[in-house]
Design a protein that fits this description.
Elements (H helix, E strand, L loop, with lengths): L1 H4 L8 H9 L5 H16 L8 E4 L3 H15 L9 E5 L26 H8 L3 E6 L10 E2 L3 E2 L1 E2 L2 E5 L5 H8 L5 E6 L5 H6 L3 E4 L20 E6 L2 H11 L9 H4 L20 E5 L12 H19 L3 E6 L4 H5 L8 H11 L9 H5 L9 H8 L4 H24 L4 E5 L8 H5 L12 H5 L4 E8 L5 E7 L5 H15 L14
Parallel strand pairs: 2-3, 2-8, 11-12, 11-13
Antiparallel strand pairs: 1-3, 4-5, 6-7, 8-10, 9-10, 9-14, 13-15, 14-15
GO molecular function, one term: transferase activity
InterPro entries: Amidase_dom, AS_sf
Protein name: Asp-tRNA(Asn)/Glu-tRNA(Gln) amidotransferase A subunit family amidase
Length: 500
Amino acid sequence: MTDLDDGFLVEITIDGVHEAMRAGRLTARQLVEFYLARIAAYDKAGPSINSIISINASALDEADALDAKYQASGLTGPLHGIPMVIKDQGDVIGQPTTMGSVLFAGHQPNRDAFALAKLKAAGAIILGKSTLGELGAGDTHGSLFGSTRNVFDFERTAGGSSGGSGAAVSANFCTVGIGQEGFSSIRRPAAWNGIAGMRPTAGLVSRDGIYGGWPSINGSLGPMARNVRDLAILLDTLVGYDANDPITALGAHRIADSYSADLTVGALQGARIGILREPCGYATEPDSDDFKAIDEVFSRAVDELKQQGADVVDPIVIPDLVELLSKRARSATEDDESFAHYVSGSAAPPFRSRREAMVSEVFKGVSRGAQARWSAKPNQDSYHDYIKARDTLMLNLHQVMASLRLDAIVHKAVEHQPTLIADGLNPPFRDQTGAIHINTFLVFVPSVVVPCGFTRNGLPAGLTFLGRPYDDAAMLRYAYAYEQATRHRRSPSLGPQHVQ
């Protein structure tokens, strides 16, 4: 197909795939073959982005079956023939779930996670599993795969913990991807790889069959894509009540009729947007040149919001923001309970408890960061202080939005440029620098990240739209309007290889 030589499939959207299918220019098999060739050329060779842990051996067969269905009756669903990658902590029948760790090497859970089954029912092809921060957290390093590279600077990290999905989507190894966020884990790799990403309000998307789910409530499954409309199309399919993830009861009656149907280019006209400028990212360094490089891009983005007719309130101040965010703490029991809940649904889990895993010989091979997280002993008093701080900050946030009549708050996705891989693997272990986690600290507020330009060093930066609980549809509308007006997304140059 000569269109492939012209770069026809690079940057293609979900709508673009379906338009090409209707025009007879593209089949699901051809699309899968295109992505597999790019993965071979750029992920496994060339710059060796290293974003894919495993490939679905049945992907071409699934594509053939979808092509046959298309010839018989047209599209089978809104994601018909769309190849996507899944952060490797979600279960898909016939594919391993490894968490990027030697602890789960060869783990075959033999089930579909609830939300991922919905994607497959809508016609999606799960092309493969993407790299992640080992055991679902931290930067994208793991004992099973090594480190994932940033697609705009191969010496820098892709971010974490959904760095594999972020890099793969940006590099056009798939049409769209799925990440999971507990601490800027979708938004940071989205911003650092120059794509859009979303952490939906907790309770909209089930985490059953996802490592790091119930009874923990702060982790959320979310879409990652090269454009906001594809985020919304994915979210339309992902949402839904699931009795096996009780938190979804809170979102069951808050689901929008459609997240993709009401996207308009004029959504920012008259929208009242508060600009949060106070430095509040993890280990942020406001006096550094690195911070200032991002700040320059952010200031230009604020001007672009004004140009689109937004009523900008700049700056806003959320009382005690930094002090309250510093209270983040883990539960003394939640991690153990969440681990046990996940493995209880697996056909053959390698371990039945975190304790069993930690005393095994295999645990010695786990990466330094993951070992440190698992070995840290949570303090119940600190966790209690965190819960109080979370309630206080939620009230403070709502009061600011109410008193200033704000429709959304905009802040930097990350306050620093992507860090060097070497700095994350060696002392002082620079990791997650500048990551802002207001949404995951509060749990029940949505965030959407969209590209907002490049720094003077040629590295991507992102803008975050943050809203009230279950105001996900509005955040998508604002992000879409900004994206369509500015078009900051840029496809990375991965090298001289020519993919046929």
